[in-house]
Inverse folding.
């Protein structure tokens, strides 16, 4: 968080409290204050699509509040009515009438002056997998199957560690260049990629997926993505061309082991 | 005129007329169709071309006679295509069916309250709700028939397959439909004509039959998504297993609750429509009360709905990872952001209506001061729920964030945060209702202070449990995290039941500090009721599309593949346009139903007192002259 921005907004609110500001002023202050926090209050900036979403909610909430009782409706509408009907505000009213389209025009000008960028796409990060794939002439059931070496963690822990270590070797020989040393998507090639690779350390990434899903993504890569996910929109190679099936499963074991996460368990369908 | 001239003009005119007739006859005769000159037949028949034509015709006739019968897989619907046509008709059928199934549920309950308390207002209210049913029932049946015919015409092969699997269910369905018509019309037309208990029995019969119809129809559609009871090749093994497939029960529960919420909201919209048209304070008071009851029904049913939806989604994921991922992570995941925005608006709208309703009671200011805290909780939960996991962002924004998910907001995009937000939203809405309920009342029991403290403690405990489990969910594996939703929901439900129980005893004989002034509501409150009904309908259309579209290129998932030209998933924009148009059509038709229902209240046509009556007009003139 940018503490200075948050403190500045808090100071304005404190001043309004001290001056016992009208509800209309408070409504405006909340709207502007929250916009400033969303726009400038975070050290990693919030994308404009989310800011728009949040400000939509804030706008509805403020409107709901100022009209939620007769007194509040009265308190908000009174200064507005006075502003629009009393002659002493005529010049200011005229200026406001001119300022509204001028602000709209200024907004258009600002919007048109942004640097050229590729258009926004709502990217599907976890596209749906097929139910079955074929890797090295072997059919893998993605719905019913699971990592064949996972159960070794309980039955043969030493054997399991060997697979994890093999996975470590596979990772550092092949994956590290994009996914990075600590799996946070900061490998040396990452600056040339759009979109950047998956951050495995993120709690919302591999922990919500089953290991068969990872097997599909690793073995088939970008070329194996369905159309909904835009197959051209990733640089992930189809690793089945370079790795054996066992190596892919071992790499998956290592991903979960290194990040301290567990794959999503196969769920039991209700008994009938 | 000169007689001599007449003598001359008479024959001249006759000659001119005769000439004109001859001219016209000649003209017409010349225009008559005449066979053109042709050479004698013997010469023409001898040409090779004529022989060739004769042979061709004979060959075509022979080919036509030998043509085998081939079953058509698909037929095309003009202009919009088969998929959009079926989509719109099925959605309209479903919306009217939901309304027809829902209204009797709460109409019977309200009637029973009226019978038990002896308060005639409840009986009148239940009757008024029931008035909306008969035309809606006809429209449901009409759309149902249209849907059946369109399925047979446009998707004959698929329909044939469904008939083969579910053949034992169709005749009972028709029988139940007759039974529903019997109960519905006897219930409606028999209002006040039977003993109240007999009438209540008719209402219960209507509900039982209506729900049974829904259960059968649900078996068909859930089988399409999670087929069961068939061989690998699709041959039927067990009809019961096909009915009781993996998603049948979750859909039954979800639809039953959603129908009540939807029906309540549409009935409240009807009351709002009548309120806005009301001309007397008495009418306004009645329709204000009716809108309140309709909205109350909608919100009470709406509160457990997210849990039922969560269970359904969990079962879909359990049945097939592919379906689950398509829904929550794949092509349909963006629709869940729209869903979050719609549900957030529904919660906000429902709370806002309750807050406005506090104004009906004198001395509501002491309660209204809590609105800001409730609003902050709702707005924050709304934001959390609507935060997408993978954010739409420019390349520069993604680089600035360090990935496709924001380092802070990314935590809000996963289920732990969403579950927590929805549970707190439900708790907050419940608190709004509780505050509304106690507006203008003061508890007089000796343990009032302890009671309030206990309520606050339960509420705070439930909130702490929900938030703590939500945070804990970030540190455990997915299956454990999904399981945490059960204690979260249980604590919210426990809090709601416990606080309500305490509240009932706490306000048993309260000191009234202000009267409820029914009808004293700003017009904006009525538009909120209409907004809630439209949002519910839109939400049903949208989520219905998600459930149905999940199968993607399958009619019956994994069994009957869709090979029609429509075997692709439409863009989200197109889908929302179809849903919007269907919702618009529904409201045009339900507006027609409202209008028909309101005709019942109008006085009979009276030619004497009609404003257009000549008698009244004459009286009016007399009155003007005398004045």
């Amino acid at each position: 968080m940018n503490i200075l921005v948050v403190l500045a907004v808090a100071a304005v609110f404190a001043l309004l409290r001290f001056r016992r500001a009208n509800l209309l002023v408070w409504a405006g202050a909340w709207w502007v204050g929250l916009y400033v926090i969303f726009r400038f209050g975070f050290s990693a900036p919030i994308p404009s699509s989310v800011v728009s979403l949040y400000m939509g909610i804030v706008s509805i909430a403020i409107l709901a509040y100022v009209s939620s009782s007769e007194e509040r409706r009265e308190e908000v509408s009174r200064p507005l009515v006075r502003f629009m009907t009393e002659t002493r505000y005529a010049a200011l009213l005229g200026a406001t009438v001119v300022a509204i389209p001028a602000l709209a025009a200024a907004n258009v000008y600002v919007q048109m002056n942004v640097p050229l960028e590729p258009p926004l796409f709502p990217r599907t990060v976890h596209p749906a997998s097929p139910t079955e794939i074929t890797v090295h002439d072997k059919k893998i059931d993605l719905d019913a199957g699971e990592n064949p070496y996972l159960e070794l963690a309980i039955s043969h822990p030493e054997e399991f560690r060997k697979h994890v270590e093999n996975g470590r070797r596979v990772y550092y020989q092949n994956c590290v260049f994009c996914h990075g040393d600590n799996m946070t998507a900061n490998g040396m090639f990452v600056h040339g990629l759009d979109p950047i690779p998956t951050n495995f350390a993120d709690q919302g990434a591999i922990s919500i997926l089953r290991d068969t899903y990872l097997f599909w993504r690793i073995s088939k890569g970008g070329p194996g993505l369905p159309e909904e996910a835009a197959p051209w929109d990733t640089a992930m190679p189809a690793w089945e061309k370079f790795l054996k099936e066992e190596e892919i499963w071992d790499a998956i074991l290592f991903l979960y082991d290194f990040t301290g996460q567990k794959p999503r368990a196969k769920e039991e369908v209700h008994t009938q | 005129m000169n007689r001599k001239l007449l003598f001359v003009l008479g024959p001249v005119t006759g000659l001119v007329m005769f000439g004109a007739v001859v001219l016209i006859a000649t003209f017409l005769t010349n225009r008559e169709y005449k066979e053109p000159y042709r050479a004698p037949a013997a010469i023409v028949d001898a040409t090779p071309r004529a022989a060739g034509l004769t042979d061709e015709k004979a060959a075509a006739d022979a080919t036509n006679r030998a043509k085998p019968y081939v079953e058509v897989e698909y037929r095309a619907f003009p202009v919009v295509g088969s998929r959009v046509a079926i989509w719109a008709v099925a959605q309209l059928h479903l919306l009217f069916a939901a309304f027809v199934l829902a209204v009797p549920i709460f109409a019977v309950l309200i009637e029973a309250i009226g019978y038990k308390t002896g308060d005639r207002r409840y009986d009148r209210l239940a009757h008024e709700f029931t008035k909306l049913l008969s035309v809606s029932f006809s429209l449901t049946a009409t759309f149902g028939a249209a849907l059946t015919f369109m399925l047979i015409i446009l998707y004959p092969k698929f329909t044939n397959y469904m008939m083969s699997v579910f053949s034992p269910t169709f005749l009972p369905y028709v029988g139940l439909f007759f039974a529903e018509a019997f109960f519905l019309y006897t219930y409606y037309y028999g209002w006040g004509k039977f003993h109240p208990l007999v009438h209540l029995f008719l209402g219960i019969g209507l509900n039982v039959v209506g729900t049974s119809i829904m259960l059968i129809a649900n078996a068909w559609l859930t089988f399409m998504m999670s087929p069961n009871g068939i061989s690998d090749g699709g041959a039927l093994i067990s009809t019961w297993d096909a009915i009781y497939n993996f998603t049948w029960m979750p859909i039954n529960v979800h639809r039953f609750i959603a129908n009540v919420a939807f029906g309540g909201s549409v009935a409240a919209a009807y009351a709002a429509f009548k309120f806005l048209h009301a001309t007397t304070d008495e009418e306004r008071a009645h329709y204000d009360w009716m809108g309140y009851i309709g909205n109350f029904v909608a919100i009470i049913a709406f509160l457990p709905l997210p849990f039922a939806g969560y269970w359904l989604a969990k079962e879909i994921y359990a049945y097939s990872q592919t379906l689950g991922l398509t829904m929550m992570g794949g092509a349909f995941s963006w629709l869940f952001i729209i869903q979050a925005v719609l549900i957030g608006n529904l919660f906000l709208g429902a709370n806002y209506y309750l807050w406005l309703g506090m104004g009906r009671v004198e001395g509501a200011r002491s309660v209204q001061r809590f609105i800001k805290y409730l609003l902050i909780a709702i707005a924050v939960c709304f934001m959390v729920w609507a935060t997408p996991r993978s954010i739409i962002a420019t390349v520069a924004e993604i680089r600035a964030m360090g990935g496709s998910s924001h380092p802070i907001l990314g935590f809000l995009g996963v289920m732990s945060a969403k579950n927590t937000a929805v549970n707190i939203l439900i708790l907050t809405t419940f608190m709004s209702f509780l505050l509304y309920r106690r507006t203008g009342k003061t508890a007089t029991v000796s343990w009032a202070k302890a009671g309030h403290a206990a309520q606050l403690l339960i509420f705070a405990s439930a909130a702490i449990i929900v938030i703590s489990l939500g945070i804990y969910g970030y540190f455990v594996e997915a299956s454990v995290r999904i399981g945490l939703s059960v204690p979260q929901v249980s604590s919210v439900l426990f809090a709601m039941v416990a606080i309500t129980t305490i509240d009932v005893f706490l306000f048993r004989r309260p000191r009234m500090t202000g009267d409820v002034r029914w009808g004293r509501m700003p017009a904006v409150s009525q538009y909120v009721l209409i907004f809630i009904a439209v949002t519910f309908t839109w939400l049903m259309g949208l989520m219905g599309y998600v459930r149905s579209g999940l199968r993607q290129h399958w009619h019956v998932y994994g069994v009957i593949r869709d090979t029609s030209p429509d075997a692709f998933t439409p863009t989200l924009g197109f889908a929302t346009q179809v849903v919007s148009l269907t919702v618009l059509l529904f409201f045009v038709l339900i507006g027609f139903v409202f209008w028909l229902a309101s005709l019942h209240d109008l006085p009979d046509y009276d030619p004497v007192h009609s404003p257009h009556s000549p008698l009244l007009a004459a009286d009016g003139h007399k009155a003007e002259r005398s004045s």
Summary: Chain A has two domains: 3-112, 132-259. Chain A touches chain B through 64 residues (CB under 8 Å). Chain A has a mean pLDDT of 87.
